[in-house]
Automatic annotation (TrEMBL):
InterPro entries per the UniProt record, alphabetical: DIOX_N, IPNS-like_FE2OG_OXY, IPNS-like_sf, Iron_ascorbate_oxido_reductase, Oxoglu/Fe-dep_dioxygenase_dom
EC identifiers of the protein: 1.14.11.13
Transmembrane portions of the chain: none
Coiled coil: none
UniProt keyword Ligase present: no
One annotated GO biological process: gibberellin metabolic process
Protein's UniProt name: gibberellin 2beta-dioxygenase
Amino acid sequence: MESEPPFEETYKTLFDSHSVKELSKPQLITDVWAAEERELPLIDLRMLSEGDAAEIEECKREITKASEEWGFFQVVNHGVSGDVLEGMRREQVKVFREPFYKKKDCRIMNMSPGSYRWGTPSATSLWQLSWSEAFHIPLTDIPRFGSRTSLRLTMKKFATSIAELGLKLASILAESLGEESRFLEESCSQSTCYLRMNRYPPCPKYRRVFGLMPHTDSDFLTILCQDQVGGLQLVKDGKWISVQPNPKALIVNIGDLFQAWSNGVYRSVEHRVVANGKIERFSTAYFLCPSHDAIIQSCKQPSLYRRFSFREYRQQVQDDVKESGHKIGLSRFLICRD
């Protein structure tokens, strides 16, 4: 199909050189098919607006507990209408059906350079390759993105609702630490956050590559709207588990910045997406990010992590990926103690 990225042609050398030795690496896909399917903690946010004082506090405790023990949870009655979510799915499918030559041309798509991404340009082995394509869209780019008004209007509604939800959840988590949410509200705005529309094409090499390679998110908080195909997996108690899709829920996960800011109270958990041999998968993620100049420092003492700016963190991640093929993340910023 003219819309498909040329994965097999572009990464032919990696597939041809793939060896049995590579398959023995722990990062590879040897454990994918043995992963147990489990349901994430499910939290009803209706209690925040309709519950009494005790129910409100209980809901907040559930959010905090899931962030500490899982780093992931699901929310229902979240305030984002079903019409907006379904509309986002329809528009997303349409834009990914555009011919490949159009998708990769930022002028045709009215997007910032580098917004369309596919595969893993830095991959030097199959375990570093992600069989997926995505549009990485700063919220400030939405008013001009693409060629269809319906897409822009739908994205705007989606982003507005999701951003409100993201700040609400982040504020609850900050207050649970005994901290004011002002820092998050002031540093995370429409000019710093972004959406990422993802598509995972059917993969004939699905037993040899990931849809999205294992990673943690580099933001404060991620909110994910996914279809019902499944494929998301995360680490829990040292084991990979498969997330059972819930058609009524949005998935929320803690990012690296929240783990550092909370001094390790909240967990940024490694996760990945499994490739599927027959069915394509779609999702849209919202990333709650601060400005590049925002300084991240642990709110508790003694601090596990040194102070760093978001700009410094992103640059370190990019340097590590370029050097080693994978993200190293927060361990780079740990304070070594005797």
